[in-house]
Amino acid sequence: MLEIIGAVLAFVGAQILFSRTKLAEWITPWKSVGFTILIISISIILFSALGSTYYLIVIIPTIVSSVMVSSRYRDYLMRVQARRVQWKENKE
Fold first, then answer.
1. Is residue 82 within a helix (H) or strand (E), and if so which, with residue range?
2. Tens place of pLDDT for every residue, the chain, 92 residues?
3. What is the pTM of this model?
């Protein structure tokens, strides 16, 4: 039950953090994927090294990282769409 509550809170917190603020705006979508792989790898290594049974060590960084990647990709698609609309207007 604690894992579910932690996962939901991490998801909501990450959505607020990456949607409302410009925290990860400096990173490109591809770099955010690499950063996510790094974060998840470190959390898995930490989980294994500690011999822990607390799955939140892996769950929370995975959720936060996935929200970061999806928000960066969403921002990228919105910029591409805006450029496309601007290009169509300039073409006419």
1. helix 56-91
2. 888 898 999 999 998 988 888 777 788 888 889 999 999 999 999 999 888 778 888 999 999 999 999 988 988 899 999 999 999 888 76
3. 0.81
User: CA-CA distances (angstroms) from residue 83 to 7, 22, 26, 31, 69?
Assistant: 36, 20, 19, 22, 21
Buried b (16+ CB within 10 A) or exposed e, 76-87: eeeeeeeeeeee
Backbone φ, ψ for residue 55 (5° rounding): -75, -15
- Sequence letter at residue 86: Q
The amino acid at residue 27 is I
